[in-house]
Amino acid sequence: MFQVRTDLALESKEKFEEDNVEVKGVRVEEEQLAPEIRVTRVYIDTENGARIMGKPKGSYITLEASDMMEENEQQQRKVAMELAKIVKNMMPEQKEQMSVLVVGLGNRHVTPDALGPYVVENMMINRHILQEFGPCALEHPDGKIVSAIVPGVMAQTGMESSEIIAGIIGKTKPGLVVVVDALAARSVRRLNRTIQISDTGINPGSGVGNHRHAINEESVGVPVIAIGVPTVVDAATIVSDTMDELVTAMRQSDTLQSLGASLSTLDDAEKRELVRELLSPNLNAMFVTPKDIDDAVRNLSHTVAEGLNLAFSS
Amino acid sequence: MFQVRTDLALESKEKFEEDNVEVKGVRVEEEQLAPEIRVTRVYIDTENGARIMGKPKGSYITLEASDMMEENEQQQRKVAMELAKIVKNMMPEQKEQMSVLVVGLGNRHVTPDALGPYVVENMMINRHILQEFGPCALEHPDGKIVSAIVPGVMAQTGMESSEIIAGIIGKTKPGLVVVVDALAARSVRRLNRTIQISDTGINPGSGVGNHRHAINEESVGVPVIAIGVPTVVDAATIVSDTMDELVTAMRQSDTLQSLGASLSTLDDAEKRELVRELLSPNLNAMFVTPKDIDDAVRNLSHTVAEGLNLAFSS
Amino acid sequence: MFQVRTDLALESKEKFEEDNVEVKGVRVEEEQLAPEIRVTRVYIDTENGARIMGKPKGSYITLEASDMMEENEQQQRKVAMELAKIVKNMMPEQKEQMSVLVVGLGNRHVTPDALGPYVVENMMINRHILQEFGPCALEHPDGKIVSAIVPGVMAQTGMESSEIIAGIIGKTKPGLVVVVDALAARSVRRLNRTIQISDTGINPGSGVGNHRHAINEESVGVPVIAIGVPTVVDAATIVSDTMDELVTAMRQSDTLQSLGASLSTLDDAEKRELVRELLSPNLNAMFVTPKDIDDAVRNLSHTVAEGLNLAFSS
Amino acid sequence: MFQVRTDLALESKEKFEEDNVEVKGVRVEEEQLAPEIRVTRVYIDTENGARIMGKPKGSYITLEASDMMEENEQQQRKVAMELAKIVKNMMPEQKEQMSVLVVGLGNRHVTPDALGPYVVENMMINRHILQEFGPCALEHPDGKIVSAIVPGVMAQTGMESSEIIAGIIGKTKPGLVVVVDALAARSVRRLNRTIQISDTGINPGSGVGNHRHAINEESVGVPVIAIGVPTVVDAATIVSDTMDELVTAMRQSDTLQSLGASLSTLDDAEKRELVRELLSPNLNAMFVTPKDIDDAVRNLSHTVAEGLNLAFSS
């Protein structure tokens, strides 16, 4: 059965609020950091909450800023600093110097999916300098030891990203993995203006290209922080949401009021049946993205990389 | 008012057939070239036909092949040979050796819009060889003299593509311009499996990035052949078509039959009103494209370039 | 006959100093702006100076900073501010608002030649905003009106860059052209740490890819400022310089002293004959470039674009 | 001490022939396959041969074709078929279906080093199809199971390519690794017209970017076939070879004959001393490459990928 898809915990929660469903085991905290930056923290505390939300237990922190995708150095810096704070708080404590493997998931040849690879291109990498010249050669001797990889997508490699990453972790033994990925949102209004930071890693079915295997502490053996930016909406989600808006629009439109009223009397099973029938099978492999996605992905990847570089340099 | 958008004359014609509207001044010829290649010729003969179709008078020839986007050398070669034939028939007769400027419209940094730039990268260019070494240095001495340009999009250049091209034509005086562009289709089923060849050039509002000014014989002073491949569907078009499918689906679904029937009694004005209300303004700057658009654009650009290279080499 | 090639006026002048040749009609001013930034101004005042230097009359200003190619935001900013000052001083005075066309010469697919295209990717373009929404929509209403083009190289387009640019200028009528290009230096020590700004435009034979036609006020009808960064040394130049170093090395090496002495007695004609014989014809189409040219070109193009954006925003 | 560098066993052998040194334990077989394709097989049979050649024991097969870098489909196909034959002969026998991991070494952002990444982009990958849909879904059911990875270079990842590959092999267990890399030749005449296939893997110090760790059966646990194409010459090698050519040129030039004669009386130690003194330390991080390296790398990567695809599809 078709389900409205979103990789944002924030949107999953909103969906239940729309439907007036109370979800036990999930807490939400909101904070307005500045006129233009908003932080929302969704905590999934119980297995029950996880089951209902369709996402693992853990923290999902969302940074939202309306002009995130524009080239505005000052604003990018502010967002990057908030991102750095959140990531630093989420990092596990370690006695010795922490080493981090940054993973840029996605396909560099598909613009909205290129966020992960682009972030990696802007990371300050120093593991090889430490290995070759020792700690004195590092710019920030107290910072983290940083390595990075762009594994590519399955059609390019024939391998699951999770296989590639688990193999590399087994060999290079980082203390933490940070996975950066482009996400699918439910609402076009969230595209390119939202960053989600989570301590749960990457889970099946998330991402633009539907990565199917988990990349989390359970599967790779070290803590995994996931950083995601929604750059697409599933085409099927747009259609499904249109269905809901149709009902609402009908209610509000004078000429159509009677129709809308009767349509809204359908129960949920009937609505789902209707949506299923409407969905062209072609739509499943399609996504919706803005026309200026090239600028958006470029600017967002700078911001995310700047935030991570800040978080790792001290 | 919102209009379902398609850059394919073939789809405009189909729309009228769906609505059982006869369009005078428009002729259609269909031909099945092989089990897997279909050619449809739409001729807009009169000003009246042009007004109704929303496209200028001229020939619009569509090549369709279901596996066009796959990497299949033999099939690509067949399609390329058909494309070459169509382009050669469309080229104006000239006494002296013809020189052609190939223009790759679109944004190379947005995957579904990169078709034009990629085609230019695969063109055999020889104008500079002729200028420097004379006709004996050409591989095909009887072929056309070929030059090419990727003008970039307005956000990158600050200039209309039409300004750039008209300037270059004024200086280099080609006898023919061939403009290659990614198009918007109405139906996701046509994406990446259709090539439209037209003797009318590029007209306002077509293309993925909504090029606004015409590039045709009237505006640039030489004949313009336009080659387009649909790689996206406008997000608004998906929503609008969903509306129509909703009505059909309702009629066919047992539980919803009565509702569908009453919805289908809306007249066209009421339907349009409903669609207008449904359309999120955000959707106007969005498009729908397949997840494997990188492979599709790469393979299609090889096919189109091969077809043009064949057409120009004799 | 082979001539040591450099696109830097500074190096041409140094060559004469090495050879103890006084060049009349050429003035040099040096200034240490900061411990790490050095400005050298070479003025070619007379036709005689131009003939001897092998470069047109005009000003050639060189910014040198040893760490220009590293990713160091503060240092990049300083260099960018000096570049902005120099460019602003060089711009012609105009009563009305100045419009500038920035041209990124070179081949984006050959790393050391990609500087021009990369600079254009980082420019703030606003001409289309002004055309569509009027002056109120501009971020800096008193700034320059900026457009940009990446014409590509002759093997890609079949056209001289000068033809393409002259055509575009004829159509869009900018008041100033700024051409950005990768250059060839004589010394590997100058690579990626030098920016030359000149009011003479681009002249035959300069650039990594040997652009052959002039792009200057005479050929395109508006003033042309050329901004160049040396990213390669001609392979033939390396060999030729080795010859000179060989003589010096021989003089200083105990075992070879007598040989070196006799070699140094060769007159210039004999030395040139020797060099000519040594040069493999294959070397003419070869260049020398550093292994980390990707980082260098990326960082330098950011600095140049930042400098130009600063110069044009007020 | 400086040593003339080449990654081609063929050139190492030629060097000894030039110097009239007989190398025991090394056999050479030459074959002219067609007027334009030449195959040379160098077998290093003994540890002594390996020590003198500076390369591990094993087979080094070189395909040479003068027009390999041009876009010529028929000639590319011939070379690809020969490459496929050589690779198939070199593959270890296995009872069950062989699985192959193709590794594209090098830096995709530095044109002459991008060969490996480009080859991977053109490989037919099927491991994921087999995993998901079973053997019936494969195009060539009797072919090899192919996966591929582009590990990136150390400055991008902070990790040795050998670490990344060993990790992935540990996880995905291929039966064979094929490593594709751009090489350094000694002579500019060999650039872009030579393919070396070897059963010894990648060894320290080879490749454009000086990969330092071995990727061979000993280090990764499975047989490794290395495929290399020389795209650069070390700048220091050019200078060193110039020294030799200088002596030869002096002997042949009338005016300089006496000088050349005396220079040629230097013994090898003296020559090396001279070369060492001539070498600018800057040159060590520099390479020489042709100006049209973009076309060369594109065409060569198509040929190599076509050869591998042929070898793996049956």
Descriptive notes:
4 copies of one chain form a homotetramer. Chain A is an alpha/beta fold and 314 residues long. Chain A has 12 helices and 9 strands. In chain A, strands 1, 2, 3, 4, 5, 6, 7, 8 and 9 form a 9-stranded mixed beta sheet that branches. In chain A, a hairpin with a 2-residue loop joins strand 1 and strand 2 (37-44). The radius of gyration of chain A is 21 Å and the shape is globular. The mean pLDDT of chain A is 86. Chains in contact: A-B, A-D, B-C, C-D.
Summarize the structure.
The first copy, chain A, has 314 residues and is of the alpha/beta class.
Give the N-to-C terminal Cα separation of chain A: 48 Å
Global Rg of chain A: 21 Å
> Based on CA inertia axes, which overall geometry of chain A fits?
globular
Largest interface: A-B, 46 and 46 residues
Oligomer: homotetramer
Amount of helix of chain A: 40-55%
